[in-house]
Amino acid sequence: MMFHVEGVKIAIIVILSWLYMQIGVYALVRDSLRSGETFDHSTTLCSPMHTFCLKFAPLQFDPTHTYLVIRSTRTPTGYADWIANRNYPIDNNSGVLLTLNHSGALTITSQGGNGNPITLYSPVLATNKNVALTLLDSGNLVLGEYDASGTGSMKHVMWQSFDHPSDVLLPGMKLGVSHKTNQSWLVVSSFSTNNPSLGSFALEWEPKNGELVIKRGGKIYWTSGVLKNNKFENVPRHMQIMYEYKIVSNKDEESFSYASHSDHSQWVLFSNGNLQDIENGDIAQAQNCYGYKTKEGCEMWEDQPSCRLSGDVFEVQSGYFDRPLSQDNDSFAEEKNITLTEIDCKDFCWSNCSCVGFTTYFPNQTGCKYYYGGWVPNFVKYAGLSVNILVKTNPDHKDMKKWIKIGAPLGTTSLILCLGIFCLWMRRRKAAHQEKRSKTENSMLNFMVSERCNSLVEHQNELKNGNSLRNFTYASIMQATNEFSMENKLGEGGFGPVYKGLLPHGEEIAIKRLSKGSGQGNTEFKNELTLISELQHMNLVQLLGCCIHGDERMLIYEYMPNKSLDYFLFDSTQREKLDWRKRFNIIDGIAQGLLYLHKYSRLRIVHRDLKASNILLDTNMNPKISDFGMARIFTQESDVNTKRIVGT
């Protein structure tokens, strides 16, 4: 009886707490804007499940202006999924109002502006119908006419934000054209990092060829290639596992849209032309397109300068010039034009045969500075300059291609003659080949723990066969960690010390350095390198690459700013930051990661060392499972014996 009474008390407390929170939220958040109502900077309009919210707010890189933005509640607060007034910034503290008047017009006004309202929608004929503005859980802001009978159902869509995207494509948002309304759907990049106004690049759907294209000034820089088996040719295959594409082609419209298996997918077209899913990684890198065609989807859009070879690229490097940069020599040139962006600087330097590098002039990434001196890279110490330097290919590369064209027909003839001999040899070797392949597959399932694979050469071969991992140089790691300084040390794990690093282009990384006294060695290093490169899930830590230098073995991961779960669980002060909502999200994320490992990943994996210190937390306190050094792959068997003691 006592337990029953206590249970009732707890239930009453929970219900009262929930009601209290709902009262507080209702005072700040509304679900719609109706005719004759206004919406100011202190109000928030959220979707039914609170997945998206509409609010007047500054942007992360433009804190001096106010914008009407839609943001996902699951992503960092700095980035907006939609911006209503991207070309018309409003000064902060200027009394902004969003108004839906009785005629059905939707406008933004401000006291501190020039007095001209920003019209989002104006009906051809004024209406006195039951009109309201609502935000859907898809992130679509809809102005619609509702049934006056009180059922709350929408009769007609008058205007919607999905018809006017900014630089973000969300699931369900369309690219293409409507033949009924002549409405074009396209995503346009921002002008620069801290200026959200219309930029140079546009993401469009090309219905004739059935492919996505990124254009600049009407010229096609990049194409996705045609869609085959729900995969675009020039989009990384590991990215497309998460997407389902929808193509519509009829008399009413020609359109493309996508759905995502991740919680929040957000395709962002950046000012440099790169298309990235903020949650999952790069989709296209148009900034690497130089006018010559490549296998990565870059198109031929200009005549190649005679001084540039296919394969020449710009690369951000730190270093110095072999003669002083002063106003008295011709080592550099400046163009203080705020209408020029980084991509404009790159175009000029690419076409100018004397230019060896460039940077933007102003802090807001506008204007240009071009360099003409001799460049000396410095990979160990910061040299004070970080410049986009032209890296040239081998001068003999062009002649080599000519000889390849001449030798190709002769080689083809020889190949045909040899093919018959090869087929006979293959028949005789079939049994031996099958046995060898079986041994190779078993070796992979056992993580290739043979001591034969402990050499530097075999590790590097493993990396080359990996899943787009980077091979970091020891010098770059020394530079990123300030020579493994104590200020950069994050902690100590079973593998060894962990350091924070900063790459020259600003990317933060975490470096796990194998310690000789850790009890783990080449087997665990190779195990984690081989295994985690095969895994792709939002609740598994992302491996960026590795570094092998002499006896040094290092793994490079994405940086997790909130450390590990044990930092919060076992500290009385930090524990207070874990409310029940965060705890539930962490538990759910860990469960999703384990479910993927045990059931849905290409390889069936048991972690064998799961503990709080191996659960890392990102900026939004999302959990990511790490440290796969002790993990093991299983095939279809349900019972496996082992003699090895694992766990730390």
TrEMBL record:
Residues 484-648 form the Protein kinase domain. Residues 30-156 form the Bulb-type lectin domain. Pfam families: B_lectin, PK_Tyr_Ser-Thr. It catalyses: L-threonyl-[protein] + ATP = O-phospho-L-threonyl-[protein] + ADP + H(+); L-seryl-[protein] + ATP = O-phospho-L-seryl-[protein] + ADP + H(+). Its main location: membrane. GO terms for molecular function: ATP binding; carbohydrate binding; protein serine/threonine kinase activity. The keyword Lipoprotein does not apply. It is an enzyme of class 2 (transferase). It is found in: Cell membrane. Its EC number is 2.7.11.1. One of its GO terms (cellular component) is plasma membrane. The keyword Kinase applies. InterPro entries: Bulb-type_lectin_dom, Bulb-type_lectin_dom_sf, Kinase-like_dom_sf, Prot_kinase_dom, Ser-Thr/Tyr_kinase_cat_dom, Ser/Thr_kinase_AS. It is a single-pass type I membrane protein. The chain crosses the membrane at residues 7-29, 406-426. Gene3D superfamilies: Bulb-type lectin domain (2.90.10.10), Phosphorylase Kinase, domain 1 (3.30.200.20), Transferase(Phosphotransferase) domain 1 (1.10.510.10). Keywords: ATP-binding, Cell membrane, Disulfide bond, Glycoprotein, Kinase, Membrane, Nucleotide-binding, Serine/threonine-protein kinase, Signal, Transferase, Transmembrane, Transmembrane helix. This is non-specific serine/threonine protein kinase. It comes from Mucuna pruriens.
